[in-house]
Specification:
Layout (H helix, E strand, L loop, with lengths): L21 E7 L14 E2 L2 E2 L5 H14 L4 E6 L4 H13 L4 E2 L15 H8 L2 H9 L11 H18 L3 E7 L1 H12 L15 E7 L2 E9 L9
Helix pairs in contact: 1-2, 5-6
């Protein structure tokens, strides 16, 4: 007696990275120390270099716990100390020494470095309004041009991907950098569309050749923070 053939089922596709692709977890550093008029930050190559605030060190610990089991093969930080400070708990858990990628440092804010950007944003400086209207950092006097910033970010991501095929890596970097990466990945005409990644957040990019695929942005579930 014949039996009916089993019906073939076609389940929904689940994403997997293409062969040779690199998965990059972009971590925004933990909260840094507040700017104070009578206590300016140290500078590195003209850029503000504050320590992590106590809250930022807590962010770093929570990031370390979140990523410890994610099969990460390499860690990268920038020249500004808040990124290696944020990476330190994960580096200790994985037994990895972070490598420095200087081109993933934050946008250079020119005359508004050393805490002035925070102050002028709080005070509602008219150039802040122009910055958001024009979607350009370089409306700030002396700031790095958008072309320079975007070019170095694209080149750095390309280098890291080329050096890490079929691997997962974690990059500890800055809010402006993460915003630029995801604006480029999505082709957003609004260059500031992805600004505002939270301190200690994790964003996830897959790079396959010239193709950048967005997997997640501003994941803060490990921080146990409510929706803002």
């Amino acid at each position: 007696m014949s039996t009916p053939e089993q019906e073939v089922e076609y389940r929904q596709h689940r994403f997997s990275p293409p062969p040779g692709a690199t998965e990059i977890f972009l971590v925004r550093h933990g909260e840094s120390a507040p700017a104070k008029g009578d206590n300016p930050f140290d500078l590195v190559d003209g850029q503000a270099d504050p320590d992590l605030a106590p809250e930022g060190r807590d962010h770093a610990e929570q990031v370390g716990r979140r990523l410890a089991d994610e099969r990460i093969s390499a860690l990268y930080v920038t020249t500004l100390r808040r990124t290696p400070q944020t990476a330190a708990p994960l580096a200790a858990k994985l037994g990895l020494t972070p490598e420095v990628e200087p081109d993933l440092r934050e946008i250079h804010l020119g005359d508004w470095e050393n805490g002035l950007f925070r102050r002028y944003t709080h005070e509602g400086h008219p150039i802040v309004e122009e910055l958001w209207r024009e979607q350009r950092w370089d409306v700030i006097p002396g700031a790095e041009t958008m072309e320079s910033f975007g070019g170095r970010i694209k080149a750095a991501i390309g280098r890291l991907a080329a050096a890490n095929p079929d691997r997962r890596i974690a990059v500890f970097t800055h809010g402006g950098v993460i915003g630029e990466v995801f604006a480029q990945a999505s082709g957003a005409t609004n260059r500031f569309a992805f600004l505002g990644a939270d301190n200690g957040s994790i964003s996830h990019l897959v790079v396959s050749g010239e193709t950048w695929m967005v997997r997640r942005f501003n994941d803060t579930s490990h921080l146990q923070s409510p929706f803002g």
